[in-house]
Amino acid sequence: MPEDPTIVAWVQGALRGEQDAFAELVYTFQDAVYNLCYRMLSDSAEAEDAAQEAFLRAFNNLNRYDSQRSFKTWLLSIASNHCIDRLRKRRLQFLSIDEPLPAQLALRSDEPEPEDAVLRDEESRMVQELLDTLSPDYRAAVVLRYWYDYSYAEIAEIMDSTESAIKSRLWRARQMLAEQYAQNARATQIGGHLADDE
User: Fold this and answer.
1) Which residue among 8, 18, 186, 190 has its CA within the 20 to 30 Å range from the CA of 176?
2) How far apart are CA 160 and CA 143, in angstroms?
3) What is the torsional sign of CA 69, 70, 71, 76?
4) pLDDT digits (tens, 9 = 90+) for 150-172
5) Topology of domain 1-99, CATH
6) All residues at 6 or more sequence positions from 184 whose CB lies less than 8 Å from its CB, including other chains
7) 70-115: pLDDT as tens digits
8) Which residue, 161, 150, 170, 153, is CA-closest to 32?
9) 147 neighbors 136 (Cβ within 8 angstroms)
């Protein structure tokens, strides 16, 4: 399906050297790219760097973009591949990915109550920890499917794979997440019983 004519016009403008055209593309897709990078990398600063790198790579390869494809899909494929590369390098360098996220509570009236915010932060941290147990390819498939609601075909296109391989990855990823969740729940129960005995 052809891309939105406005997006195509911005791409063509960027190819002609119009900085404002590329700035429109960045503005339009920056949240989606950052969110993908954050879900994959679990670190806001690294996600910002990865998002910037993804846009730089997209800019340098705009001449390869096919306007018959979705620009967002093309851009997210660049971002997810870059994040996978970063995760592989991270594992090779034995860097820790266990940095806890700071809880950010705001006291504005439209913010949730402190208890709700803490519960949501805890739930978000737990989901991110579970995602961190997956290999980069599985993590990318899960994020694209369940955070971005992409179809199997779109994920296969982004990850340069087949639909059946993506379905298989997602099935195995769900199994791994369920097993890890069950282990965490058992560990929490055991820890609670030990605390009760003291």
Assistant:
1) 190
2) 16
3) negative
4) 889 989 988 889 999 999 999 99
5) Rna Polymerase Sigma Factor; Chain: A (1.10.1740)
6) 126, 129, 130
7) 899 999 999 999 998 888 877 655 434 455 444 443 444 455 566 6
8) 150
9) no
Give the chain's length: 198
Place of tokens 């730089």: 56
Q: Is 180 exposed, middle or buried (0-12, 13-18, 19+ CB in 10 A)?
A: middle
Is the pTM here over 0.90, yes or no? no
Domain boundaries, the chain: 1-99, 104-198
Q: Looking at this protein, which amino acid is placed at residue 10?
A: W
DSSP state of 157: H
**Which residues lie below 8 Å from residue 159, measured CB to CB, with a gap of 6+?**
77, 80, 81, 137, 140, 141, 144, 166
Query: E strands within 52-175?
Result: none
171 token code pair? 């099935």
Q: Cβ(131)–Cβ(181) under 8 Å?
A: no
Q: Which residue has the tokens 């899960």?
A: 142
Residue tagged 């997956």 (tokens): 134
Report the CATH fold assignment for 104-198: Arc Repressor Mutant, subunit A (1.10.10)
Other beta carbons within 10 angstroms of residue 179's beta carbon come to: 11
